[in-house]
């Protein structure tokens, strides 16, 4: 399915003749979509030219550079500050610090956290509703999370394996 979407998107881009196509961008979008569909049963991207990327995709791309931007903070201050108070307290302190790069990283992490919770809650809700809801999802219940969630845990066979 993703390969057809990708082919259609690139084909539409070059329908008027040869043009330069940013394949790195398209391959990145397609890779995230394949992982989302096969692993999580979730669609991150419709792979349509001109549509905005999913915020998660943008966050993943910005994560590494943002981590590098706060490297000194992470190496010298974070080990000490990470031991003070609760995570809620530390987050409130971060809000008070006028450090643009740290706020950008916090926003990236918030988007990734929100998306993961949406996926998880969607899966939980689908399993509560039953097989029809699971089949209506992106991978029709054939994604890794759905398969693992449906398989019974057989403790006796696990013990025997070790």
TrEMBL record:
One example GO MF annotation: monooxygenase activity
Descriptive protein name: Uncharacterized protein
Species per Swiss-Prot/TrEMBL record: Sphagnurus paluster
